[in-house]
Amino acid sequence: MRRMADSAEWRCAAADLAPGRTLKFRLDCGGRRLNGFVVNHDGEVRAWVNRCPHVGTPLDLWPNEFYTDDGRDLICSTHGAIFEPLTGHCTVGPCAGDALRALPLRREGDALVVSCP
Length: 117
Ligand code: FES
What we know:
Elements: E1 9-13, E2 22-29, E3 32-41, E4 44-49, E5 74-75, E6 82-83, E7 90-92, E8 105-108, E9 111-115
Antiparallel strand pairs: 1-9, 2-3, 3-4, 5-6, 6-7, 8-9
The structure holds FE2/S2 (inorganic) cluster.
Residues 52, 54-55, 57, 76, 78-79, 81, 93-95 line the site of FE2/S2 (inorganic) cluster.
């Protein structure tokens, strides 16, 4: 199977990201690969780099599992840091006070488009 090359933009149908859902993607930013994810939290959408500010691991040890069990926050599965889905702020855990890195996100008709920072 041929893999689609990473590019400087990633898009998906907004309808594919229902509230409480996340989707992962990869960008090629000037030869540098960047892993990210989008989250729809209560109808508001954000795009974050999938990299914990604590040690730098991806947040999801289990692919695309970003939410806490109660669905209120995002969690890093490595050491349990908790993040606010809409601000990216780490509120609890070893990186409390730090934050996820945001990626530019825009709406184009029915599509969500994430681009390199
Ligand atoms: S790497 Fe995320 S809490 Fe330690």
